[in-house]
Amino acid sequence: MTDLVLLDVEDRIATITLNRPEARNALNGDLLESLTGTVASADADDAVDVLVITGADPAFCAGLDLKAVASGDPRLLGSAPTPEMPVPDRGPFGTLTKPLIGAINGYAITGGFEIALACDFLVASENARFADTHARVGLQPWWGLTVALPQAIGFRRAREMSATSNFIDAQTALDWGLVNHVVPHEELLAFTRKLAADIVSSNQPAVRRILATYDEGELLSGNDAWLLEADVAQAWFSGGQASDVAANREAVMERGRSQS
User: Fold this and answer.
1) What φ, ψ does residue 55 adopt, rounded to 5°?
2) Band of residue 41 on the pLDDT scale cut at 50, 70, 90
3) First-to-last C-alpha distance (Å) of the chain
C-alpha cells in the first residue's frame, strides 16, 4: 500500500508530502490522521528546525473527501474545535513550535485551502489555484478559514471568495498578499527549501519565540500586543538568551552585505 503521507528529513528540514494524487490529495480519515500525525512528529523531532508541506502533483489538496464526509467519518467531523480548546490548538495542526511553510504546487481548495492558511507563510507554484468552495458544496468551515483568510487578504476579498467560490490564480494570490512568492512549478521545492535553509541558519530559539509572539499577539488588541512583545523581550534578556548577540553581529553584517 502506498504511503498517504511522505516524509523526508534533510539538512534539518522536514518535507511533508500529501500523497493521494489519484484523488487530488483529498482528505479522507486515513490521510488526515496520517498528515496530522506526521506534522506533529516532525515538529517534535530534534533533528528538524523547519517543516515544509506540499502535495503530490497535480494538486496541493482538494479539501475534504466528500464521500468520507457523507459517511460520517468521525476523524473528519471530530476535528472541529470545542469551546474548551485553547485558540492556538485549533485548526488542522494545533500548536506547532517550529515554522511551517506551505509549498502550494496546485489546487488548494476548501479544507486544503485551510491547511495552506495554517502555514506561517506560502510559496506558490505558477500552477497554484485557491478557492473556498464550502458554500458551493453546502458545508461550513471549521478550521478557522473565516478567521485566517481575512487576516491574509482582508474582509472584503475573503467575503467575495467564500460567497462566490471562485478560484484565484497564483498571481492574484500574490497581489492580494495571500502568498509570499510565486515561482516556476519546477523550482517550487528548491526555492522553498532555500527559504527553509535561511531559517535553519538563524538562532532557533529566537525564531520560535518570535513566531509564538506573532501568534499570541493576533489574539490581543493593538495596545496589548505591544505590551506582550515588550514583556517577551524583557523575559528574553532576563533569561540570558541574548548573551551571544555580540558574537553573532559580524556574521549578521556579512550576510547583509552579501544580500545587498
Assistant:
1) -125, 155
2) very high
3) 49
| C-alpha cell, 65 | 473527501
Domain-wise residue ranges, the chain = 5-200, 204-259
Side-chain half-sphere of 189: how many Cα atoms within 13 Å? Answer: 14
The DSSP-derived string for the chain is ---SEEEEEETTEEEEEE--GGGTT-B-HHHHHHHHHHHHHHHH-TT-SEEEEEESTTEEE--B-HHHHHTT-HHHHTTS--TTS-GGG-SSS---SS-EEEEE-SEEETHHHHHHHTSSEEEEETT-EEE--HHHHT----SSHHHHHHHHH-HHHHHHHHHH---EEHHHHHHTTS-SEEE-GGGHHHHHHHHHHHHHTS-HHHHHHHHHHHHHHTTS-HHHHHHHHHHHHHHHHHTTTTTTHHHHHHHHHHHHHHH-
DSSP per residue over 144-183, as a string?
SHHHHHHHHH-HHHHHHHHHH---EEHHHHHHTTS-SEEE
C-alpha cell at position 39:
506534522
Residue type, 30: D
- The CA angle 5-86-216, to the nearest 5 degrees, is 90
Q: Which CATH superfamily is domain 5-200 in?
A: 2-enoyl-CoA Hydratase; Chain A, domain 1 (3.90.226.10)
| pLDDT tens digits, 79-119 | 677 777 777 777 789 889 999 999 999 999 999 999 999 99
